[in-house]
Amino acid sequence: MKRLRLAILISGRGSNMESLIRASKEGRMAADVALVLSNKEDAEGLAVARSLGVRAVAVPSKGASKEDHEAQLIAHIDAERPDLVLLAGYMRIVSAKFVQHYEGRLLNIHPSLLPAFRGLHAQEQAHAAGVRVAGCTTHFVTEELDGGPIVMQASVDVPPGTSAEELGQLILAKEHVLYPATVDAIARGKVRFDNGRVVWT
Ligand code: GRF
């Protein structure tokens, strides 16, 4: 089994990124984080990555056209030759061109049990709907927002009286386990992207 190389894209605190780096270092995921990129210069996750010994670079999206910004991202990413590119709290919608460039190698984590509650503030959407079971999903990224083929999901029971904030914390704790588990399953050849679908072996 070959350990996979990862590039991770973030925009903020980077707690999923941190869980991936820790899982790699602690032997819970057969993959190594080669590079962290942020579209925001002040993303807290950049310092977290560096403190864990991972190269982290800001590629500011502010003031750049989407095309130019993504071209810069692609140059940074491809120089590292990653096997997978992981969106982890990356708060920009990537273009069709970007998706096509990384087809079958681009993953995202979304804080709901897709296909429920796509888009922003999924945890608040779930809370407002009064769901009794919530969760998170990892999926390959396609041109359809939060609509790509699902790799793994984790669910959490929602006790009566749970606040929106508490629900967000319950889901986040599940995310921190699910994303490394997803990458590990891909690295071990248990699951793969094949012609637009997820295939388990
Ligand atoms: C997570 O809830 C993730 O599912 C969503 O954005 C949030 C990012 O959090 N896409 P963090 O930056 O990983 O802490």
How would you portray this structure in words?
With 201 residues, the chain is an alpha/beta fold. Helices cover 35% and strands 25% of the residues. It has a 7-stranded mixed beta sheet with strand order 3-2-1-4-5-6-7, sandwiched between helices. β2, α2 and β3 form a beta-alpha-beta unit. α5 crosses α6. The radius of gyration is 16 Å and the shape is globular. The model has no long low-confidence stretch (mean pLDDT 98). The site of 5-O-phosphono-beta-D-ribofuranosylamine has 14 residues, from α1, β5 and α6.
- Structural class label: alpha/beta
How confident is the prediction overall: mean pLDDT? Answer: 98
Number of helices: 6
The total count of strands amounts to 9
CA gyration radius, whole angstroms? 16 Å
Order of helices and strands: EHEHEHEHEHEEHEE
What brief labels describe this structure?
9 strands; 35% helix; binds 5-O-phosphono-beta-D-ribofuranosylamine; 201 residues; alpha/beta; single chain; seven-stranded mixed beta sheet; globular
List the helices and strands and how they pair.
Elements: E1 4-10, H1 15-25, E2 31-38, H2 44-51, E3 56-58, H3 66-79, E4 84-87, H4 96-101, E5 106-110, H5 122-129, E6 133-140, E7 150-157, H6 164-187, E8 191-194, E9 197-200
Parallel strand pairs: 1-2, 1-4, 2-3, 4-5
Antiparallel strand pairs: 5-6, 6-7, 8-9
Helix pairs in contact: 1-6, 5-6
This protein binds 5-O-phosphono-beta-D-ribofuranosylamine.
5-O-phosphono-beta-D-ribofuranosylamine is lined by residues 10, 12-17, 88-89, 109-111, 172, 175.
